[in-house]
Amino acid sequence: MLSFLPPPLLGTISSIALVLNLVLWMTPFFIVAVLKLVIPIRSWKNRCIGWLSALATNWIDGNTAVSRWHEIDWQITGADNLRGDAWYLVVANHQTWADIFVLQTVFNRRIPFLKFFIKRQLIWVPLLGFAWWALEMPFMRRHSKEAVARNPALRREDLEATRKLCEGIRHAPTTIMNFAEGTRFSEAKRVATKSPYQNLLRPKSGGLGLVLATLGDTLTAVLDVTIIYPHQPATFWQLLSGRLDRIGVDVRVVDIPDTLRNGDLDDPAYREELRAWLDAMWERKDTLMQQP
User: Fold this and answer.
1) Omega before 257 cis (within 30°)?
2) Domains of the chain, CATH where assigned
3) Could you give the CA distance from residue 286 to residue 291 in angstroms, rounded to a whole number?
4) Is the pLDDT of residue 167 over 70?
5) Among 5, 78, 112, 194, which one is most buried in terms of CB atoms within 10 A?
C-alpha cells in the first residue's frame, strides 16, 4: 500500500501509526485495569481480564492493519485449524523484537490471547509493566543453573509464580508463550554457548517444564512455531521500514506425552525426558531454517 515510499519515511509513518494505535486502546485498557485493581474479587477480576484481553486483541488488529502497508510475503503453514477455545503453549525460536509482532499477527483471533513470560524487573517499565500485570502475565526470575544447584528453592519461586498464573487462567482458554532459548539469537551467542545448531541457541527446558508441571492437565497441545526471516538478523525497524519482503512462520501442533503432564521438576528422569523432547523440536527447527 505504502511500499513505494522511501524506507526511512515508511518506517517513521509506521512507527507513528503504531504509537497512535497504542494510545487509542490504552485509554480504555487502563480504566478497566484500575477497576480490576481496586475491586479484589476473583470473579470480578476474571471478567476484567476478559475485557482487557478483548481490548488488547483490538490493539493487535490495529498493528496488523499497519503491517498491511508493507508488501510482505507471509508464508504461514499449519495455522489454519487452530481453536479459540483451547489452552495452548506456544514454543518458538527468538531472533528479534519483531518476533512478538509476527506472532501476534499470525495468531490474533485464531487462538486465545498470547501471554508471555516476562522478566520480573520489567514490571517497573512505565505503563507497560502495569498493563502486563493487569493481563496477569507470568513474571519470572531467571536463576542460573549454578544458583539453582546451590539453592533448589529458587526453582520453586518460579513454580509458585506459574501456579498463581494458573489460578487465573483455568476459567477461560489461554495461550502461554515461551521463547525457550531465553534470549535473542546471534551468531556470537551461538558460538559462545557452543550451540549444536546452525541457526538456533540451545533451548532451555525450565520455562516449558514449569508450565507442564502446573498446567499439564489443562493444556490442549503445544504449538511448535518456527519463525524464518529471509535475511539474518532481521530487526523491528527493517519490518517497519519495508525492508522485510518475506516472513515464514511454520506452526506444528504437538501432542503432549502423558509422561510430561504434571511431572515433578525435581525428578532427574523427568527433566531428562523433557530435555530430549525439546531437543527434538529444535533439531526439526534447525533443519527447517536451513531449507531455501
Assistant:
1) no
2) 75-290 (3.40.1130)
3) 9
4) no
5) 112
The confidence band for 221, taking pLDDT boundaries of 50, 70 and 90, is: very high
Query: Rounded CA gap, 156 and 277, in Å?
Result: 22
Alpha helix stretches (DSSP H) within the chain = 7-38, 42-67, 98-107, 128-134, 145-150, 153-169, 187-192, 206-215, 236-240, 268-290
- How far apart (Å, rounded) are the C-alpha atoms in residues 201 and 210? 20
For 103, phi and psi rounded to 5 degrees?
-65, -40
Predicted confidence band of residue 9 (pLDDT cuts 50, 70, 90): very high
Instruction: For residues 105 and 3, give the distance between their C-alpha atoms in angstroms, rounded to a whole number.
Output: 19
Asked if 268 contacts 209 with a C-beta cutoff of 8 angstroms, the reply is no
Note the pLDDT of residue 121: 75
pLDDT of residue 91: 95
Rounded CA-CA distance 225/103 in Å is: 9
